[in-house]
Amino acid sequence: MAFFPKISFQCEVEEYLSKVFRNSELITALGTQEAESRYQSLLSHLSHPPAFTTVRVNTHLASVKHVKNLLFEEIQQQFKGLCLPVLEHPEIQDILLIPVIGPRRDIKKHASEVIVGAHCGYAVLRGAHVYVPGIISTSKCLKAGDLVSVYSDIEGKCKRGAKEFGGNKVFLGNGISELSRNEIFSSNGRLNGMGIRMIEPVYLSPSFDNVLPSHSLLQNLPSVVVSHVLNPQPGERILDMCAAPGGKTTHLATLMHDQGEVIAMDKIANKVKKIKQNAELHQLNCIKAICYDGTKALSVEKGEDEQEGPPFLPESFDRILLDAPCSGMGQRPNMAYSWTLREVTSYQPLQRKLFTVAVKLLKPGGVLVYSTCTITLSENEEQVAWALETFPCLQLQPQEPHIGGEGMRGAGLSLVQLKLLQRFDPSAVTLQGMDINSLQDSREDDLISLANKDCIGFFIAKFIKLNSK
What we know:
- This protein is an alpha/beta fold and 469 residues long.
- It contains 15 helices and 20 strands.
- The longest helix is centred in the first third of the chain and has 15 residues, at 32-46.
- The N and C termini lie far apart (53 Å).
């Protein structure tokens, strides 16, 4: 049973999605009732966090076993002796999985309240403490050391500095205030430190603030899978077209044993700076981060010498990852999606521009992986259908590992083609909470199966370029 309300959309977006998940192909295959049930289940899942915290180990610097032992000790310390398992994944051998306990329904609320912004609230549900920039409102007499109940303003209607808020808010758990109200809303400039230390979160998940920063990285499970699907090899030249903040970039470099070249592009300078920081933190030298617009990355004229780029000469890369800008509807948790239909549908043309450039930059025999963290047909299966029709040189390829479901019907792709795609659909499992007792009674295989399914919404397609035409 859902603990939080289903994710809400603007009316026009809700109508759009309703048609997507009730398309004629899907209805014919599943029946109206089953299609509707899956859609409603998806909406419920999106407002809840995934059932596991996924930690990718930086195997360039440490072994999985070593980091597993360190994390186990860290979790015991954080949870005062509570013994949570740290699981190794049998197919994705550089990640660790930590079950998330919750939702905990028996937490008593305090009279003193703190309201945080939606994004801060989502971070809290995945194990973070509350930092001052995320705080919007507190009770008027808040002092450092007070026990407080923390709520998320999911619709963004609370005014900064308000002393009370009666709008739509969601309970996140209890914490201890590190600062007084006056310090939080000081006119001397915003503080950046911790504001509330969470001690009774609704979802119990370890905090990774300054925990093994060079040896591990929090990544959603499908985001780790996509780099394995690309399967970069030592010595190759790889392009990560839309790379920020660099989690997949550093993963690609690690899989290549830091041998070869990974060009990581993003058109926003601050994001490129973050990629460089991540590369340095993980001690990876083969990454070259560049501030550049991926839609303009193809050189229209051949120079006398091979260009370091960008723009790059045609057929310059052995493999390309296009983790495309998208509407982001697969991210979890998300209780209120505020974008307009115009914003949602603006991504398909941009994705096609980037895809076209990627195909031209790829060497014959090279591999192109396209991925998004959204749930729409237009940004996923429809893009695959368009790509196969537009570029006869491309052929869909099987994916390894393949732990998500097959592609969704509705874009005219064959059953064979759909089976080659990988769509992570959190509604594939029943929404259920996890407590210590149920965790102890569960088989490890069942927990791994749950982790594979109860994750964010994500999509992966893998192509090979057969020739230059």
